[in-house]
Amino acid sequence: MRRKRVLPLAALMLCTPALAGTAPAAASPQTPPPAAGPLRILLTNDDGYNAPGIRKAFERLTAAGHDVTIVAPLTNQSGTGTKMMSAPTLTVKHPEPKVWAVDGTPGDSVAFGLAEVFADGAPDLVVSGTNFGPNVAGLATHSGTVGGAVTALESGVPAIALSTGGVTAPDPVTTVNAMGPTLDFAVKLIDRLRARARSGPLLPKGVGLNVNHPVVGADGTGTAAGVAATFQDPQNFLQPDFTDSGDGTWKVTVKVALRPAAKGGDIEAVSADRIAVSPMNADWNTGPADHALASALIAGLRP
Which residue of 80, 256, 276, 279 pairs with 212 in a disulfide if CB–CB is 3.0 to 4.6 A? Predict the structure, then answer.
């Protein structure tokens, strides 16, 4: 499973008063109004097409005036990452208007949606989520929520991955309540993208956003302490622990082994009750310094 490279958020010019700082702020009077007309949004997830998070997202984005179509997995596909097209056939159901259920991964769902449901023209945006629990640090690499967004980016469609949770998975009941603040922020973020883009693409080609909204307050409806432009913390804090049963099988449990958070990373932000907004892309490329390292490494080598 490959790690998604994050990009400097300053390059996206999103670090503005309404989306960054120590507390949420109103949009600047100089901010132009969002472009006229609704966005065509393909909505997916990894929890399944009928999960509470995607249904709440559908309601909230539709109420904000967007034309939303759900194309999501038929069953829970959490942890499938970027997996897709692993079977020769695919079962797809159309249980209700504006809803398609794909018996596959989030990547399969988005691929089907782009090829068939939106055959007349790509959507303006793919939104993946919101889901139970966090998709920060190493979890993002294995996340089906992020995987759905990556599939869109590979096809040149702007994408946002939405997650509700801090560093550990919160109580599902609390999370259902907390999805409200997550989606309220998502609507503001999408409006900001529309205002900046005017008549152009919402994000630079190949660039998406991984948004992690913390659960704040006992009932999950508290206000986040602010918004941070972040990167994916390099640590993977969920560690498998294997116990030999002595009969050829092994029991597997998962331990949380959290190391100090990287300064400016997504773990640091959500641990401080701030919304983490991390740019990401869908390819394997790294920065110029890493390319220089590879060049130096192979200097003088011969086949």
Answer: 276
Q: With left for phi above 0 and alpha for psi between -120 and 50, is residue 122 left, alpha or beta?
A: beta
Query: For residue 70, what are its two tokens?
Result: 């759900």
- The DSSP bridge pattern shows strands 274-281 and 125-132 to be unpaired
Residue position matching structure tokens 């490329």: 285
Q: Please say whether the dihedral angle defined by the alpha carbons of residues 215, 78, 53 and 156, taken in this order, is positive or negative.
A: positive
Helix (H), strand (E) at residue 176: helix 172-197
> Looking at residues 75-94, what average pLDDT do you find?
86
What pLDDT, in 10s, does the model give residues 164-217?
987 866 676 667 788 999 999 999 999 999 988 877 889 988 899 999 999 998
Element spanning 208, H or E:
strand 207-213
Q: What is the pTM of this model?
A: 0.84
Q: What share of the chain is helix, strand, coil (3-state, %, to 5)?
A: 30, 25, 50
